[in-house]
Design a protein that fits this description.
48 strands; disordered N terminus; TIM Barrel; single chain
Length: 978
């Protein structure tokens, strides 16, 4: 019996080891080497959550069986899972006969054979789960993907307003037909059964039911970008087929036989992220050189000859045969680098055909979505090239980095290198060459087709951008249009001490785009987060220029676009680092991340070198001369937006402000994202792509997939800017500083999940999805915090008594198919994720395990037990033979048709042979399940040591689940109070 003295009179609150609320294990998590202490929890909370204790719950292998049982439990689903359902209505089979005659012989001789076939059709309804759901994905019949072409079927979400199915009503009578409100169900009309042996097949359904609460990514994200930017027919909403060796092969029907990838991807987007109301359509041309004066920006194709129907590829009037051919590479790129697979494949997909772009715009507008057009440049600079590198002295180095970022395009030689043309007329000439001479009149528009009529050989930025301005207008218009994105290497080129020719070139382009699209379209430029606030060359000159201010202040610019990948953490493994020492519990903690939105690196301090970063030597950001440190803070958006700007040539502040008018334009985060990789918030701007010279892991990352950090970044950021206290109202235009409805999360893919990334024979970058910024395949999962809160509310607990701020992570899908209490459902989650539930100050608080100690306790702080013989501490160690040598978990894999996957972890040098196993009715990525399984086994072993002691009333602030550090026999032991 472990006790904790908390009463003023010294009365003990008792409890048994492992007896914490919800039946949570008494063991500590892997990071601790300590033991546990029991406690008792408020009986009201226990009884509310758990009137009875579940003995046996649903198993994973029972989820996909279709039944027809009266009184069957209606499952509860969270996220996405494969469900079997229960037949709730059916007609008798309808029989058709088909007779054929064969034989007769020449001249009428011989007998005839008549064959009669019996064909059967069934109409029925299948209840799936509690509603409302947001969609249905794949359907399986007898375990195989069901071909739905020619099948009449429909689904009902299970809300409280749905009406009765008209087909069922025609058979039962309208007055007798239930609407099945609150139950999601599917109706099939006249399903032909011949394929299934003239019987009803075993059906299972991929069902989507995200919890889009106001504090979840699903409920917060109102805008997304849509990629891949390339892919010749990716954005087409009509089926395109190519002729290949005499066979007809679909180009854009990789998910379903009767629905294009684009349509399916948009269906999934609206099902998984129901709050989305705006989409930025990203469309790419290809740059071929980092030298601005030599770079051509052209539409590209994957192959120079391909026959497609009913439409052929064409961009800007350029045919396939005349188009730029993207690079090819016979190597397969993976996390460990390239390997030769003998398959010569294009490195990129081709530029989306113009008709496909028009179809995409019109499809999204038909769905009620706002559309922003996002022109993009992919740099096709292959490895082994012999191009002069502008980032070398006199541009004498041969070979440019492979597949670089477009933001590296600059003058040659670049600023800071010997022989640089920066600050010369030559720099202006190079910038002019990149932009080209296209005008709005250089194009011919016929219906929804736009062709180039200007001089051949002009492959400048103006041609690309003006072409798409015309195309967007021909498509019926767009809500917003970007004239450029992330070009800091270009916009910081100077033709004199303070002249920025690219900025003026963008202003000229802006005016031309406005003349095409008119006043009804919002127009902006999407600056990199390191670019938007000014140019500080760091060359010893002391120069500080708000170089983009002429563009931001231009009356034709409607918003300040920022591709926001600012770091929100400086986290390292373990607790021996600066931010953990400040008391932050984990990198996922929302308050910690939000503290760094307008604080931390880039606001309060910076690292002067990589060595300083490793040692966490932080240099404060100051402005001793002028007292305006915000000038150097890229995170101080409020000060930048609210104040007049004064250039500082040579470090001397000008007496005249720039053209920027404080609070005059809203800010749009034209991109906002974080990779799904551990420590992703340390450096959200890096992308993992082994073929590119720009491929990096975030600072201090181990390269593990981590969907939770991506979710934490997005939720923290959106919630911060949704708060009026952080997002002031302009006195000029009356709106908020940051226009959250157009802050677009990067990114959703027009290639639908799970076909992307699985079909690597179709899409070469599938391997990059695992650690990338993609929301596809991740949105629609259920936030652990939201799920636990929902279960508590279902138990009748008032929201004011539930605190889930200490939980993080998500589960792709969780199905409850048995009659069980909310406590039982939460207990399953505690075993899988490793968290505790405790009552403190009248609130039930859920906290993840693995936190740093909140208090240190010396032996003289302990209270002598009344009958303890003077002993203040009792340690108990369980026998090894009572503990498992191996732990096996079974989960569902959403990317493998929700088939069962088993993960296992074991200890090698232990004196036991016991094996423990559990099947979880949830969909979890195997690598995440394996890490949690490993944690659970370590927890069981570390937790075999328990301690019992008494603390004085001065320790009343300690709660169960807190970690403490205890001095014992000359060593420090970390303990978790339970």
């Amino acid at each position: 019996m472990a006790t904790l003295v908390l009463g003023a009179a010294g009365a003990a609150i008792g409890g048994s080891i492992g007896g914490a609320i919800l039946g949570v294990s008494a063991a500590t998590i892997g990071g601790f080497v300590g033991s546990t202490l029991g406690s008792v929890v408020d009986s009201f909370i226990v009884s509310s959550l758990a009137p009875t204790q579940r003995i046996e719950g649903a198993r994973l292998d029972t989820l996909r069986i279709t039944s027809a049982t009266e009184g069957a439990v209606i499952p509860r689903l969270y996220g996405r899972m494969r469900m079997g359902g229960n037949i709730i209505w059916a007609t008798d089979f309808r029989e058709e006969t088909k007779t054929t005659t064969q034989g007769g012989g020449k001249g009428g001789g011989g007998g005839k054979v008549k064959t009669t076939e019996y064909l059967y059709y069934a109409s029925f309804a299948v209840a799936l789960c509690e509603g409302p759901i947001t969609g249905i994905g794949r359907i399986w019949a007898d375990g195989k993907p069901m071909d739905l072409s020619g099948v009449t079927w429909r689904w009902y979400p299970g809300d409280e307003t749905q009406t009765a199915d008209p087909f069922i009503g025609s058979r039962m009578g309208a007055a007798s037909t239930p609407a099945y409100r609150g139950t999601a169900y599917v109706v099939f009309e006249e399903l032909a059964l011949s394929t299934y042996g003239n019987r009803l097949p075993q059906l299972s359904f991929e069902v989507f039911r995200p919890l889009a609460d106001p504090d979840t990514a699903e409920g917060l994200i109102r805008a997304v970008t849509l990629i891949p930017a390339s892919g010749e027919f990716t954005y087409a909403t009509q089926a395109i087929r190519k002729t290949d060796g005499g066979a007809t092969v679909p180009e854009n029907l990789n998910a379903l036989a009767d629905s294009t990838d684009m349509v399916e991807a948009l269906d999934r987007l609206q099902a998984m992220a129901p709050a989305v109301e705006s989409v930025s359509l990203v469309v790419a041309w290809f740059g071929d050189d980092l030298r601005a004066g030599s770079c051509k920006v052209r539409p590209g194709v994957e192959v120079s000859a391909k026959s497609t129907t009913p439409a052929s590829w064409s961009v800007n009037g350029v045919s396939r045969a005349a188009a730029f051919l993207v690079s090819r590479d016979g190597r397969h790129w993976s996390a460990i680098g390239p390997s030769d697979n003998g398959d010569d494949r294009p490195v990129y997909g081709g530029t989306p055909s113009d008709f496909a772009v028009v179809q995409a715009i019109q499809e999204m507008k038909t769905r009620g979505l706002r559309v922003t057009f996002y022109p993009f440049i992919l740099m096709d600079v292959p490895p082994g090239n012999t191009l002069p590198n502008p980032y070398s002295h006199n541009a004498a180095e041969t070979g440019q980095p492979a597949f670089p970022w477009r933001g590296r395009i600059t003058c040659s030689p670049a600023a800071g290198f010997a022989g640089s043309v920066d600050k010369t007329d030559t720099a202006a000439s190079q910038v002019a060459a990149l932009f080209g001479a296209a005008t709005p009149a250089s194009f011919s528009v016929s219906g929804q087709s736009v062709s180039w009529t200007g001089p051949s050989g002009d492959w400048g930025l103006r041609r690309m951008v003006l072409h798409y301005a015309h195309l967007c207008a021909a498509a019926g218009g767009v809500d917003a249009f970007l004239i450029g994105t992330e070009m800091p290497g270009l916009t910081t080129i100077r033709s004199g001490a303070s002249a920025y020719p690219a900025v003026q070139a963008y202003r000229d382009l802006l005016a031309d785009v406005r003349s095409i699209l008119g006043s009804g379209t919002k127009i902006g430029y999407a600056a990199d987060w390191s670019e938007y606030f000014g140019h500080q060359p760091g060359d010893g000159s002391g120069d500080v220029f708000f170089h983009l201010d002429p563009l931001w202040a231009d009356p034709e610019i409607d918003f300040v676009g920022i591709d926001n990948y600012m770091p929100l953490s400086d986290w390292r493994d373990g607790f021996e680092h600066a931010d953990a020492a400040e008391g932050w519990p984990a990198i996922y903690d929302r308050a910690y991340l939000q503290t760094n939105i307008a604080g931390g690196e880039g606001f309060d301090w910076f690292y002067a070198s990589a060595i300083d970063r490793t040692a966490q030597v932080r240099t404060p950001i100051t402005d001793g001369t002028h007292g305006k440190p915000w000038v150097f803070r890229y995170k101080d958006l409020r000060a930048w937006w609210s104040n007049p700007h004064y250039d500082r040539p040579g470090g001397v502040e000008s007496g005249t402000p720039t053209a920027w008018v404080p609070q005059s334009k809203p800010v749009w985060f034209t991109e906002l994202g974080c990779p799904a990789i551990d420590q992703g918030t340390n450096q959200p701007n890096v992308f993992f792509d082994p073929k590119s010279s720009e491929s990096f892991l975030p600072y201090f990352s181990r390269g593990w997939r981590d969907d939770a950090i991506q979710r934490a970044y997005l939720e923290a950021t959106y919630l911060w800017w949704n708060d009026a206290a952080n997002n002031p109202t302009s006195t000029v235009y009356g709106g908020r500083m940051v226009h959250v409805p157009e802050c677009a999360a990067w990114t959703w893919d027009a290639w639908p999940h799970p076909f992307f990334p699985a079909l690597t024979d179709v899409w070469t970058d599938g391997a990059n999805w695992r650690l990338g910024h993609w929301l596809t395949g991740r949105l629609g999962a259920v936030s652990l915090a939201a799920l636990v809160r929902h279960l508590c509310l279902r138990a009748g607990l008032p929201k004011s008594r539930i605190d889930v701020s200490g939980l993080w992570g998500a589960v792709e899908g969780y199905a409850i198919t048995a009659l069980e209490s909310p406590r039982a459902s939460i207990t399953t989650l505690t075993r899988h994720f490793g968290f505790d539930a405790v009552k403190t100050e009248g609130v039930i608080r859920f906290v993840m395990r693995g936190r740093a100690a909140v208090a240190s306790i010396a032996p003289h702080n302990l209270v002598v037990a009344e009958a303890g013989g003077g002993e203040v501490l009792e340690l108990t160690r369980a026998q090894e033979t009572e503990l498992p040598q191996a732990l096996k978990w079974q989960v569902a894999r959403a990317d493998e048709d929700y088939d069962a996957a088993q993960v296992e972890t074991q200890r090698i040098t232990v004196d036991t042979a016991r094996i423990a196993s559990e099947s979880f009715p949830m969909a979890v990525p195997p690598e995440e399940a394996e890490r949690r399984c490993r944690r659970a086994l370590v927890e069981a072993w570390v937790g075999r040591e328990t301690a019992a002691f008494r603390l004085p009333p001065s320790r009343l602030a300690l709660d169960p689940a807190d970690a403490i550090r205890l001095e014992h026999d000359g060593r420090l032991v970390d303990l978790r109070l339970v």
